[in-house]
Every structure is written in structure tokens, then in C-alpha cells.
Task: structure prediction
Amino acid sequence: MIYDLHSHTTASDGSLTPVELVTRADVRQVGVLAVTDHDTVDGLTAAKREIDLKKLKLKLVNGVEISTKWHGFEIHIVGLCIDPEDSVLLSCLDTQLKHREIRAQSMSDKLEKKGIENVYQEAREMAVGKCVSRTHFAKVLLQRGVVSNFDAAFKKYLGKGKSAYVSPNWMDIETAVKIIKRAGGIAVIAHPIRYDMSNKWLAKLVAEFAEHGGDALEVGLTQQSPNQRLHISTLANKHNLHSSQGSDFHAPARWTDLGKSLYLTEQCKPVWQHPKWRYA
Ligand code: AMP
Ligand code: MN
Ligand code: MN
Ligand code: MN
Result:
């Protein structure tokens, strides 16, 4: 059974609609898919409806990926098996989306000073849902030929410390864990190896997350070295956390896809064995 517990739709910065996403997952023989859009649960209803309508074998897990701020790092906390109608969760996500709008306008102002005009308006139009992200900004810059590839938009303008970077006003980790658990969910640190932090900082992050009642680490990613997998699974075990896995799928691409190269090692406690595990 293939579990893919991290994926995006057009409700945030993914390029497939929820219907297209579940269809692709099913074709690729994924058995369990978590839809985890950035700061929104808006894609979940359409995903579930399509699975039921087409009687797909695929099982859906209701999820979300919440942006948080921790010592200047932007840490993503995935919530799995959440109740997407929980009122506190919804109101906190609403606040995050408002911060996204404010940040987007500030990023656009910074770009304007460099002679790159109206990026906010275009990014806002490109975003199908309520979540406007730096992915949309990068796509606008690429379309206009301001940069020659997607990554360059982050390297030159949008990445931390770059000329159009705006420090975001995200909630803290403790709050994210609390609202996920309140909504009946399981809190997971997304892609722990992608934060560009030292092992010392990473150890501190995981320790604090566990103290706040966090449940799991994303141990299995599509692209990582055996050493990275071992390092994260060892950290998870040290704090008695479960292990998750996910492709973080955004769009069809050569090097990544739904369900691709996802596995846990024997020492891991799979997150789907967590007592709170449930399907949508
Ligand atoms: P945001 O949530 O608005 O801060 O945008 C972050 C999103 O941009 C991530 O979820 C990725 O999908 C995408 N992204 C792509 N390349 C990078 C990068 N180098 N740094 C940060 N985000 C990136
Ligand atoms: Mn993203
Ligand atoms: Mn992420
Ligand atoms: Mn993601």
C-alpha cells in the first residue's frame, strides 16, 4: 500500500485541481492520499466528492500544512486527520490567509522599487483559491522573463534575506500544534531536512515540538539521501514520535510525483499506526 501524506492542489500553490490530484493519485496506485494545502482546507471537499463519485479505491486523509515562524525560520507543520470544520482551526487559518495578503502586498512593493510592477495583482489573479504564495510570485516573474527559471526567482528575489523577502507574521509552532490537536488531528513537522539549519538547531526544533505535544516527523521524502532518512528517523525515535512520508507534490515534474519513492525504515513507527489515525 502506497501512503502519500503530503500534497497540494490549486486551493494553495499546487497546479492540479483537487479532482485532478485524486485522479492522478489513483492512476499512480497511491492507496492513501493526504491533501495538505498551505493554510487552507478548501480543497478537501472536492477531493472527497470525486473519490466517492468515481468510486475510487483511494482513501483520503484530511490535511493542512500550516506555516509557522520559529527563531527566524519558517517551519511547516502538517496536520493529518483533522476535522476540516473545526471552528478554531478555520479562524486561525483565516488569520494566516490575511497575513499572506499583507505579505504579498509588501513583497510587491519591494519588487516595484526594482521596477517590477503589479506583481501582487497578477499573482492574486493566478491564485485560484484564497492562498496567495511565493510560488505564484515566482511564476509571475518567470512568465514575464524577469528570471530564467523558477528557482532563480527565490534565489534572487523571494528567498529568505533576498531583495523582495518579507518576514512573515505566521503563528508559532505551539499554536499550530494546539489547533491541529484540537481539531482531532496529528501534528507533523514537514520536510525537516529542508530548513537549511544546523543539526544543533534541528535537534532543538524537534525537542520543542515534542514538548508542545507534536506527534510525528516527515521521515520519508521523495528525494533525500539514506543518511538524511536515518538522521530524521533517529530523531523521531529519540522523542518517541511517529514517522510520516509524503511527496509534497505540487505539479507533475520529472524528478517527483505522487507516491514516488516513499518508504520508511524498520525502526520507524508509521504515522498511520497513530491512535488518532482516521480517513475522511
Ligand atoms: P510561501 O508559503 O508563500 O512562503 O511559499 C513557499 C512555497 O514556495 C513552498 O511551499 C514551495 O512550494 C515553494 N518554493 C519553491 N522553491 C522554494 C525555495 N527555494 N524556497 C522556499 N519556497 C520555495
Ligand atoms: Mn508549496
Ligand atoms: Mn512545506
Ligand atoms: Mn508542502
Notes: The mean pLDDT is 98. Strands lie at 2-4, 30-35, 59-70, 73-80, 186-189, 216-220, 242-245. The longest helix spans residues 87-113. The pocket of manganese (II) ion (ligand 4) is lined by residues 6, 8, 65, 190, 248 (CB under 6 Å).
